[in-house]
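agent> call fold_tool(seq_1)
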Amino acid sequence: MYKECCQGLALDRRDFLRCCGGMAFLATSAMEASGATAHRAREPAKEPLPTIALGEHRVTRLIAGYNPIGGHSHSTLNLARHMREYFTVERTAEFLLHCERQGINTWQYDHTEKVQKALRLAREKGCGLQLICLHAERPHDAPLKEVMKFQPIAIVHHGGVTDALFRAGKAQQVRDFVKKVHDCGVLAGVSAHNPENIKRMVDEGWENDFFMTCFYYVTRPREEMRRELGKVPVGEPFFESDPEDMTQVIRSIDKPCLAFKILAAGRRCWSRSSVEKAFQYAFSRLKKTDAVIVGMFPRYTDEVSENAAYTRKYGGV
């Protein structure tokens, strides 16, 4: 950058100072980023978070989510791109280590190439997080035998795919997936956004070990909304009453539930107080045997330590 700025005789003092200032800013930013990473590496491990039983495993009531790492913002394209660019392999590995140091012991993830690289790097640095893989045997999904190489404690059928198959009259495919996962020797979960699908699986006595339950019915079909509301929103529907509908179902069943989107994909994150209220609400409505999965984007604040603190405050069992 200095060479480019100093080329030619037309460079005046103002241009030179502006150029030097830019170099100083970049150098300072790099030092700050390096210092932040070093600080996190030195931070003492926090006390473990409250846990629940998932089969033979103890899982913290706050589970780190995947969506920000994969760039699934459920908001805007630019935010999705920003998330993907921020979460490099190295930053993803550091994120996992930071989660563990804050007392989280489990990560729900998608089996992607970046995730595989990040997991290898994190494990080289001593990370021992338990893994819960979201999967659905879609054409782009890795075979289950490949997923098993990373030794997840559980594999869960993807919620969006679950809801689509139920609407298409193909729920048996989801039930067959549960059997395939059990044949791999790990716990089998089913995710869904529609509380009616959760109730149906319970009523039919499905063999899955636990559920992943979305606080918002974001896969609600357009025709259903037009019929019931007379209109449809732009983008995914996040209705204020949805968490109450899902948590009523959660409390009515015995199996553990891992609740996700408790922050409405960032819509309840306008202030720290609103985030805290969302955690308080979630743990007050869930069973003592349930946990939450929260995606975190620690670009601006240390959301990991903040959310861990809310879990200690409201998720004690």
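agent> call fold_tool(seq_2)
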Amino acid sequence: MIDILALLQHLSPYVDMTTIRQMSRIILAMLAMTGRVTMLGISRWTEEGGSYRTVQRFFHTVIPWAMLFWLFFQRHLLDPQATYFLAGDECVVTKSGKETHGLDRFFSSLYGKPVPSLAFFALSLVHVQERRSYPMMVEQVMRTEEEKKAAKAKQAAKKKKTKGKSGRPKGSKNRDKTQVGLTRIQQMVQKLLSLIMGVLSLEHLVMDGHFGNNNAVQMVWQCGLYLISKLRHDSALYFRYDGPYGGSGAPRKYGDKINYASIPAQYLKATTTEKDVRTDIYQADMLHKEFAQALNVVIIVKTHIKTGAWAHVVLFSNDLTLDYDRLMDSLPYTFKKVI
């Protein structure tokens, strides 16, 4: 406990010493305990001075956690010579009852459906060379009544949707795809960037396939960062058109639509074979009609040499200068199909 207390001493300008002593006892208990972490469980694992009432008082104290995380990281963990990128993800924790603050139905990837739970969004700094993640900011996800009504209306409209005429609706106008509203995630990113400004230079924000859309790209770009994420496996991507000008109207932008089963060999970057499975890596600057800018797309195709079965994943970034190996290394991915 004395060692933990010594590590926290430099936080004293932002929290009082009573809170730091309570924190040192709670940290020690959380490192030692097993199972789900609760206030009662923490109190049972703390040493003298860590009663249940003390734990309650600590969790009712307003603490500038983002500032403390950054100060601790800057003092004990920051490597000035290393390369870092920012990573964001949402965590869902199942919770029973009805009275817990923020309790709602959130989608859980473990259960594959929405479940009664609490949701938290976290931003972390990732050390590229050491492959370690350091959480910097965590906020609870709270859905407003307007957001709940909008989600229900969208779901109801999707069920009632019938097949109509193909093509663009009559009277519709062009929209600026670069204009998106301010989101809670964007506010978190801006707060964190202002906190670390002048000490650490960041260029990329990595998020999972849930954020593989134009709104997320524009949101991250407005923060001065590039997005690295994942697209749907059946995304309608197009090569750039490099043919002659048609002679009238705006120059043609979209070339051939990609066929994932037959990607041109000129975009092949690397090939490896292991245990009868060949992995082909393709990279190209491509266009998507829902995105405002061109995308740096990396496609990983795995093929079983004996059976011919194959599967692929599609990663992307709006940083057109990013190498395929670094893009792949930044974002964990899995193949749903069994090769």
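agent> summarizing second result for user.
The CA atoms of residues 283 and 298 lie 4 Å apart. The two ends are 50 Å apart (CA to CA).
agent> awaiting next instruction.
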